[in-house]
């Protein structure tokens, strides 16, 4: 019998602290984006496990045509305004995707899975209803882990360049979360369920790789602090990051 992956609760109210923010972002995006199709909530707020003042606002926004330059500027301004006016979040992270890409057969294991199992529709036609439930499979892991090598290189370059403490802490957080999520993707095909939180990612991964406890502890330091020297964060990216990439490639060669 097939073991379908869980879906996020789309009926229960979100945490009260975040409701004004969610209503504001939907209103602002409706006003600023002409080609808006639908808005989806992701991350800890969607899981109802957000921490006020710490969690990010993570959105996936589907559009019917590319944003104009003017719209890009307006959206950047909206994101900055939301961050200032709603201190319940630490940052605004919006992923933009074209409707044609979401509906493409080639993207079903990325966007189909993402909208069906990792998103809650806030506005517009809910595209998740066009997809059936997904089972654990290597194709999903590949869809979300294929860019790990390039992503880690890009983050390392950003860390090396920045002279801003705020930016540095943000990049460390991004690096830690990217590596932790990628660690889960290494074992996702073999687990019963799905990891929605950082701790769940760690637990699933360590059940398979118990000798990586120290590395996982260091990832949590990158994500949550305290601030570490640049050489420490770069070491994690180059050493443990390289191990993740190599392990991913090994599994890909075995499974194909």
UniProtKB/TrEMBL annotation:
<dbReference type="InterPro" id="IPR043519">
    <property type="entry name" value="NT_sf"/>
</dbReference>
<protein>
    <submittedName>
        <fullName>Nucleotidyltransferase domain-containing protein</fullName>
    </submittedName>
</protein>
């Amino acid at each position: 019998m097939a073991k379908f992956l869980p879906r996020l609760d789309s009926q229960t109210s979100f945490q009260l602290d975040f409701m004004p923010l969610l209503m504001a972002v939907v209103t602002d995006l409706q006003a600023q984006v002409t080609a808006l199709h639908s808005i989806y909530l992701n991350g800890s707020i969607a899981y109802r496990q957000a921490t006020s003042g710490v969690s990010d606002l993570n959105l996936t926004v589907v559009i019917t045509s590319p944003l104009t330059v003017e719209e890009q500027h307006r959206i950047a301004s909206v994101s900055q305004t939301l961050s200032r006016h709603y201190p319940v979040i630490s940052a605004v992270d919006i992923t933009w995707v074209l409707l044609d890409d979401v509906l493409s057969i080639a993207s079903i294991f990325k966007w189909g899975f993402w909208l069906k199992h990792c998103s809650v529709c806030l506005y517009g036609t809910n595209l998740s209803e066009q997809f059936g439930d997904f089972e654990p499979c290597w194709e999903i892991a590949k869809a979300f882990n294929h860019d790990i090598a390039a992503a880690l290189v890009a983050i390392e370059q950003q860390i090396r360049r920045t002279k801003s403490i705020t930016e540095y802490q943000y990049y460390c957080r991004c690096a830690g979360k990217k590596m932790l999520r990628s660690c889960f993707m290494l074992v996702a095909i073999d687990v019963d369920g799905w990891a929605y939180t950082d701790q769940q990612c760690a637990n699933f991964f360590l059940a398979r790789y118990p000798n990586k406890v120290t590395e996982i502890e260091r990832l949590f330091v990158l994500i949550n602090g305290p601030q570490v020297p640049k050489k420490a964060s770069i070491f994690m990216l180059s050493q443990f990051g390289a191990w993740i990439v190599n392990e991913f490639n090994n599994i890909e060669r075995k499974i194909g």
